[in-house]
Amino acid sequence: MLQIDKIAYTNRLTKINPMLKFVVSITLLFTAIIFENILFYLVITVGIAMILTLYAGIELGRYIKLLLIPSSFLFMSIMTILLSISSSVDLFIYKIQIGNIYIGITQTSLDTCIILLLRSIACLSATYLLALTLPMNQLIRVLKTLKMPTVVIEMVMLIYRFIMMFLEEYNEMQTALYLKFGYGNLRISYRSIALLITSLFTRMMSRYEELNISLEVKLYNGDFHV
Amino acid sequence: MIKADNISYKYKDHTLALKDVSIDLNNGSKIALIGGNGAGKSTLFLNLMGILKPTQGCIYFNDKPLEYNKKYMYNYRQKVSMVFQDPDKQIFHSNVYDDVAFALRNIGIEEEKVKARVDEALMKTGAYAFKDKAVHYLSYGQKKRVAIAGIIALDSEIVLFDEPTAELDPAMTKGIIDIINKLSDEGKKVIISSHDMDLIYSICDYGYILSDREVIANGPIEDLFSMDDILMKANLSQPWLMKVHKKMGVPLFRNEESLFDYWSELHGNSSNRS
Questions:
Q1: Which residues are in the ABC transporter domain (chain B) (predicted)?
Q2: Which of A19, B57, B91, B179 can pair with B6 through a Cys bridge, CB separation 3.0 to 4.6 Å?
Q3: Is residue B153 part of a domain?
Q4: Quick one: how many helices (H) and strands (E) in chain B?
């Protein structure tokens, strides 16, 4: 989460026109969703990987790790499509028999899976092209130029700021718990996590109240100007 | 100007936070509000800002009592503003520039003027160099500069600083002192709450000592800091220049430079070890 944010602010493509980055990523994303062409998916995936590693200067290993984050979800959904259950034997190209039913892979499910897998990776790459080169502050400006409703932009902005504050608070408390041996064994760990959650909640509530006060001082009257 | 007349404040759970506090901000141009932890400094500030309403007594602004309605406060808070101790509590945008512009856009100033005022405020606070950075990658001291810039941009007549130098390194502390002095030179009234005695002594001209929710002494800074027993009672201590004056028989100076000048004149350069 934070790592993506950090990369977005520090890579070599950060300073390029935000609108350009936005349009390119979104176009690639939607073409990958609409068109079904394996070669096209491969071109997008490899192309973006090259842009991000060679031009933006993100280490290849780091990028691959980021790509692997959603892999478990991907794997699970692919498996459910790949495997089919049937009582007739002739459709399967590979199968195992359990009682009088067969579990296995058919040619069509294999084809669908390959397309689905490559499409997912291509879409993921396009999303990363957006997330890794376009910092949130630039994205907000793009949304503004595109005349998005103010409510949406406000929410994006405030949620982003609060996530950062939340993570900061969480990290500090986590460290404090470690230093006080809060993760010594499983039982203590559970209790520590409960403590962490309750105090995170109360702290966030008091933070919220304090922010309300400073909103008043800053003459807030219902609209966030972005 | 602001005047608080015998105000008391009770929280909803009936704990008393202020007891018969009277202060008059006409008494000086850089006014100190000093007191130990929990003396009531922050509560008093929130009362002065109109966030909390005194349960007894009254606060006057330009000789008229404060009105606690939206319209009045909207005008009042353009003239009186406050810098919080924790900058994170005052920063809403993740972008420095937008955050400094926040209050200005709230009061509907045109974008061109906003830009000029934001740039000026960023220059004054030395935050211009990182104006395009994301707030969460700034250091604590840098965030503090941004928070102050957001208030300076408002160009209000009176600025309240709650613990302006708490948790800052010496260089940043000096930076904040410079900013406060600059504001004062522009003719703005500055009110500073702190328990950093050396800081208060070097910049303020008048002060109020709060102890256990009450004002126990007030007066010009030099007089205030010579009352050792009162300072002790308020969990405070004398600034070091005052201690040197009292215990070592050196004349009283307002800043260390003049003390050192005096000393080298007296003893020649032989005392210079640097």
A1: 2-237
A2: B57
A3: no
A4: 11, 10
B108 within some domain? no
Whether B272 and B186 share a structural domain: no
Which of A135, A165, A225 faces B106 most closely, judged by CB atoms? Answer: A225
Residue A111, Cβ density class (10 Å: 0-12 exposed, 13-18 middle, ≥19 buried): exposed
Interface test with B, best of A167, A216, A225 (most B CBs within 10 A): A225
CA distance A217 to chain B (A): 6
Looking at the structure, do residues B49 and B66 belong to the same domain, yes or no? Answer: yes
Give contacts of A136 with chain B, Cβ < 8 Å.
Answer: 94, 134
- Render pLDDT for A51-110 as a digit per residue (tens, 0 to 9): 999 999 899 999 999 999 888 899 899 888 888 888 877 778 888 888 888 888 888 888
Give CA–CA dist B263/B274, Å, rounded: 14
The domain of B173 spans 2-89+158-236
Same domain membership, residue B269 and residue B214: no
In this prediction, residues B190-214 reach a mean pLDDT of 93
Query: How far B49 CA lies from chain A's nearest CA (Å)?
Result: 8
Residues B12 and B85 reside in one and the same domain: yes
Q: Is the pLDDT of residue A224 over 80?
A: no
Residues B227, B251, single domain; the answer is no
Query: CB distance B106–A218 less than 8 Å?
Result: yes
> Are B247 and B168 within one domain?
no
Tokens 């089919």 correspond to what residue? A84
pLDDT tens digits, B54-64: 999 999 999 99
Confidence of residue A23 (pLDDT cuts 50, 70, 90): very high
Question: Which H helix or E strand runs over B9?
Answer: strand B2-10
CA B97-B99-B105 angle, to 5 degrees, is 95
Give the total number of structural domains in chain B. Answer: 2
Residue count of chain A = 226
The ipTM assigned to this model is 0.71
Element (H, E) at A92: strand A92-98
Tell whether B80 and B14 lie within a shared domain.
yes
Write out residues 7-36 of A within 8 Å (CB-CB) of B.
9
pLDDT above 70 as % of chain A: 99
| B193 close to B34: Cβ distance less than 8 angstroms | yes
